[in-house]
Amino acid sequence: MRCHEVDYEIFGSDLQIVEIILDPGESVVAEAGSMNYMEEGIRFEARMGDGSQPNDGFFGKIFKAGKRMLSGESLFMTHFTNEGSRQQRVAFAAPYPGKIIAIDMDKVGGAITCQKDSFLCAALGTEVTMAFNKRLGSGFFGGEGFILQELRGDGMAFVHAGGTVIKKKLNGETLRVDTGCIVAFTGDIDYSIEKAGNLKSMVLGGEGLFLATLRGHGTVLLQSLPFSRLADRVLAHAPAAGGSSAGEGSVLGGLGDMFGDR
């Protein structure tokens, strides 16, 4: 089915919100729990599947939902529909600091591959499915790069990324990237996992043992702050996890909390 033609506005700088503007009868699908607010005429319903294949039978929906569960996503997606008689808005936000990226699927060839947790919302008609990297090396060593998300359609889709987003154009070149820093890439790019360097660099270099390698023709979106890296830093400084409660640059450490006021 053709995607609904939704309009949108993005607000904010580092903790952004996207407002989707729906004409009467139009719908948008989103990951469960990503909605911020909606106007009076919007109704929502949790459904199994993205609604892009309305003729899918029960078992077809179960199969697609099972693939989503394997990647750690919710079994259901939420469908928001404007049941009013005039334009209404519904807003979605990213779950951590970063940017929301609007992608016109028609202009990128109708398909894009993303990190598995980067999808935020899309016009009804967009197919949201899992894409498993077929290379065995990627499966064992790719970490966040093994299970990917694939979006297909001809409407607007929105993904989110951590930190600053950089766009790279490849014209036959090769780009080597930390696996967690990839946000999305177009379908003409080959993706694999390769050794980070010689044994000394792999063990002592601090860049990990393996890097993602992207080759071909197309566009790659990269993020400066993968959520896993942010979570690692927070956990490392969490007292409950054995980290230090000293502030950055502090020389007083725990003395600053001697009265227990923080």
From TrEMBL:
Signal peptide: none annotated. Gene3D superfamilies: Mitochondrial biogenesis AIM24 (3.60.160.10). It comes from Gimesia algae. This is TIGR00266 family protein. It holds the Pfam family AIM24. InterPro entries: AIM24, AIM24_sf, Trp_RNA-bd_attenuator-like_dom.
